[in-house]
């Protein structure tokens, strides 16, 4: 029979399993059935295949679906195996299914079809994760915490402001995925090997049947290009990087007792009984490597490929699948860990005074009284340099003396003691910074509304 002939002629040698992607192709098994069905319906509608034969092929495809990927006959890939199974059911006429197409446009359609639902699944998870982060922001809008730059105490902020910063980043990560989605969702079918077909195919019709928004126009581009995988994997890598940064923050906070993770998101040590480790977040951080590896692997796979189709492409999809699977799991775990964590308000507020983190607020106060900011900075910097190692804020008298020294007038000429004391209080310091997007609870409330 023809199938046997084809099998004998090609992949019988020692490279047989090397050539085969059948196992990997389980990922696109359902997609291939959908693509086959759409193609066969279109062939019948265009009178390229008669309706009876098309009906028999469609019935055979149902049987193939019921039997599942595991029941497929041997083949170089899922496309060939499904075709063989159809021919086994229908007889030689089953071979009409492959009229006016190639595995090249077929596999491109399968990858796009499957990736589309994977991207939507990831976007759905992201939306859920963002809602969880917004709940944390709502609950912790008054919870003062230390903010850092260079991992050094910098300025007081709030848990809400911190968490909202990640929600905003995840908004953009979501938008990048949806942007990539538009270009994923184009129909390559009808491109055949790369050079089109003499049959009167209706490419808009298969696009419609498969839910593609448009047709990938040029047939050579349609079968050869995988940049839709590049931009999707790149968006996933950006997302995984955001998640990794969030995870790193929480790992550092946990090490300082600034956050208590729920047991569900912690691990212990097999030897040190006292340990509660933030392993889930370390794995989120580690998994960022899966996504960057995927992007690198994909770009490396693609970069030397000439037009049109090359078998290298059989190894392209896996990079995207690995990256997207890994990130999809990370989204839920990272958001879950943050959503269920406990933020010890007193510890955090005390920590927010460490290292004279209210210094900028004092300088701002002087500047608001008309002192040039650079001069105010100089006064406060001098005071900061003279602090004892265990001292988190200067005495008013010391500040006043330095101010007089630098500016010629006593501090009272510019600001009163009460205002300075307020600026030295982390909660007041946060409340003062009510500029748009800032940490003051009022500004965060606006951010929450917008989100
Ligand atoms: N399995 C292949 C892939 O995933 C499709 C087969 C096309 N093969 C070919 N020799 N043109 O890319």
UniProtKB/TrEMBL annotation:
Q: What class of enzyme is it?
A: lyase
Domain named Fumarate lyase N-terminal is located at 45-289
Ranges for domain Argininosuccinate lyase C-terminal come to 356-431
Please state where this protein is localized: Cytoplasm
Q: Which InterPro entries match?
A: Arg_succ_lyase_C (IPR029419), Argininosuccinate_lyase (IPR009049), Fumarase/histidase_N (IPR024083), Fumarate_lyase_fam (IPR000362), Fumarate_lyase_N (IPR022761), L-Aspartase-like (IPR008948)
The pathway that the record names for this protein is: Amino-acid biosynthesis; L-arginine biosynthesis; L-arginine from L-ornithine and carbamoyl phosphate: step 3/3
List the EC numbers from the record.
4.3.2.1
Read off the CDD domains from this record: Argininosuccinate_lyase
Q: Which SUPFAM superfamilies does the record match to this protein? A: L-aspartase-like
The reaction(s) catalysed by this protein are: 2-(N(omega)-L-arginino)succinate = fumarate + L-arginine
Sorted alphabetically, the keyword list is:
Amino-acid biosynthesis, Arginine biosynthesis, Cytoplasm, Lyase
> Which NCBIfam families does the protein's record reference?
argH
Q: What is this protein called?
A: Argininosuccinate lyase
């Amino acid at each position: 029979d023809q199938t046997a002939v084809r099998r004998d002629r090609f992949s019988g040698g020692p490279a047989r399993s090397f050539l085969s992607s059948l196992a990997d192709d389980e990922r696109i098994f359902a997609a291939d059935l959908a693509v086959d069905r759409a193609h066969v319906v279109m062939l019948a509608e265009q009178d390229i295949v008669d309706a009876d034969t098309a009906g028999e092929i469609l019935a055979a495809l149902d049987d193939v679906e019921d039997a599942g990927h595991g029941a497929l006959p041997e083949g170089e890939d899922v496309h060939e195996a499904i075709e063989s199974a159809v021919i086994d059911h229908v007889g030689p006429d089953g071979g009409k299914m492959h009229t006016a197409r190639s595995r090249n446009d077929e596999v491109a359609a399968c990858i796009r079809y499957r990736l589309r639902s994977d991207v939507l699944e990831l976007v759905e998870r992201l939306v859920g994760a963002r809602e969880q982060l917004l709940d944390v922001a709502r609950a912790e809008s008054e919870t003062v915490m230390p903010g850092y730059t260079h991992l050094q105490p910098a300025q007081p902020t709030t848990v809400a402001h911190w968490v909202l910063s990640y929600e905003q980043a995840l908004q953009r990560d979501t938008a990048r995925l949806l942007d990539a989605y538009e270009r994923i969702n184009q129909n390559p079918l009808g491109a055949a090997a790369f050079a089109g077909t003499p049959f009167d195919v209706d490419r808009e019709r298969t696009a419609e049947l498969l839910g593609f928004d448009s047709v990938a126009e040029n047939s050579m581009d349609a079968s050869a290009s995988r940049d839709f995988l590049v931009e999707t994997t790149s968006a996933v890598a950006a997302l995984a990087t955001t998640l990794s940064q969030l995870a790193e923050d929480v790992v550092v906070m946990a090490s300082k007792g600034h956050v208590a993770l729920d047991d569900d998101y912690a691990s212990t040590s097999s030897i040190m009984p006292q340990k509660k480790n933030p392993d889930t977040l370390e794995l989120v951080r580690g998994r960022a490597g899966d996504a960057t590896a995927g992007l690198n692997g994909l770009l490396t796979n693609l970069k030397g490929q000439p037009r049109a189709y090359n078998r290298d492409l059989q190894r392209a999809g896996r990079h995207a699948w690995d990256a997207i699977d890994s990130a999809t799991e990370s989204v839920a775990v990272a958001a879950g860990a943050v959503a269920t964590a406990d933020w010890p308000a007193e510890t955090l507020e005390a920590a927010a005074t460490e290292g004279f983190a209210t210094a900028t607020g004092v300088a701002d106060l002087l500047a608001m009284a008309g002192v040039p900011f650079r001069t105010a900075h100089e006064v406060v910097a001098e005071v900061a340099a003279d602090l004892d190692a265990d001292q988190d804020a200067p005495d008013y008298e010391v500040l006043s003396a330095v101010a007089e020294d630098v500016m010629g007038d006593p501090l009272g000429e510019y600001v009163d003691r009460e205002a300075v004391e307020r600026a030295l209080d982390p909660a007041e310091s946060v409340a003062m910074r009510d500029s748009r997007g800032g940490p003051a609870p009022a500004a965060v409330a606006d951010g929450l509304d917008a989100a």
